[in-house]
Amino acid sequence: MSLSGVLSIAVSPPPEIGYRMGLVLLAISIPALTVAPIGGAILQGSGDAWLNVKVFGGVMCLAGSVVMFLSRWLYTEKKLFKVF
Question: Would you call 25 exposed, middle or buried from its count of C-beta atoms within 10 A (0-12, 13-18, 19+)?
Fold first, then answer.
C-alpha cells in the first residue's frame, strides 16, 4: 500500500501529481475501510473462522489481480507483452 503513492508520482507529470495521487488513494480507501470489518464478521459468525477468513482474503487478492490484469490488457491495446 505504501508504494501506490510512489508509483502515481513516478508516472505523472508534475502538474497532475496531486490529482492522480488523490485518485489512487480514493481507490484504496474503499477496500481498506470495508475488508477489515467483513473479516471480523466472518471470524465471529462461523465455526471454522480462520479458514473462512483466509479464503476471503485469497478471493480478494485474486479479484485485485484480475482487475490489474484487465487494466493492463486494455491499456496496452490488448497486447500482454507490450512495454509501456
Answer: middle
- Inter-residue contact 39 to 53 (CB < 8 Å): yes
Question: For residues 5 and 21, is the Cβ–Cβ distance under 8 A?
Answer: yes
Which three three-digit cell numbers place residue 21? 495521487
- Looking at the predicted structure, is the pLDDT value of residue 83 above 90? no
Contacts of 80 (CB under 8 A, 6+ apart): 72, 73
Q: How far apart are CA 72 and CA 6, in angstroms?
A: 18
Query: What is the average per-residue pLDDT within 18-40?
Result: 89
Q: What is the DSSP letter of 14?
A: G
- Euclidean distance between the first and the last CA atom of the chain, given in angstroms as a whole number: 22
The three grid cell numbers given for residue 10, joined into one nine-digit string? 513516478
